[in-house]
Design a protein that fits this description.
By secondary structure, this protein is mainly alpha-helical. It is built from three helices and three strands; from the N terminus they run H-H-E-E-E-H. A three-stranded antiparallel β-sheet has the order 1-2-3. It is rod-shaped.
Length: 180
Amino acid sequence: MGVDYSYTQPSESEHYDGNTEESAYSETDELIRLDQAELSYNCPEPHQYPPQPEVEFGFPQKCYCGGDPLLETCYTRNDPGRRFYTCENRDDGDCHVWKWWDVAVMEEMRAMDGQTRELAQKVDSLTQMSDHETEQKLANLEMIVSELGNKNQRLTNRFEMVLAAVGFLLVVIGMVLMFK
């Protein structure tokens, strides 16, 4: 048959269209570097928003960008009618809030359950602790009430004495005027 199908790699010294392999790679690298420089000049870096706890947990109050979250409905085949939070600025390409509504509700309910348990524990500790303290406070209040009653009685007695003295003076003046 006589046909030679062997293949050899070209050497580095061989020239193709006047270029060596090294010069072709360096030109390609230079073009890539120029394209990247042009892209970074024309397209500024996107904003990197820090995580915010009010977005990460429960009902989102604000988006990472500062916008107000919107409650929308999903119309996909996998989640038809499922509600979710998103941002009014979601189409600008930056990072924005996106969260399923039912997940946010469950997070809020777990938080409220924890707060309710804490409050119940505080109420229980107050009812157990207050027996001795309540007795002391009640004794103090009874003492204050009795002191106020004594002062009131003394004032009432003084007032009655003043009224009696004024009445006696009026009787004396009346008698003097009658016998005059």
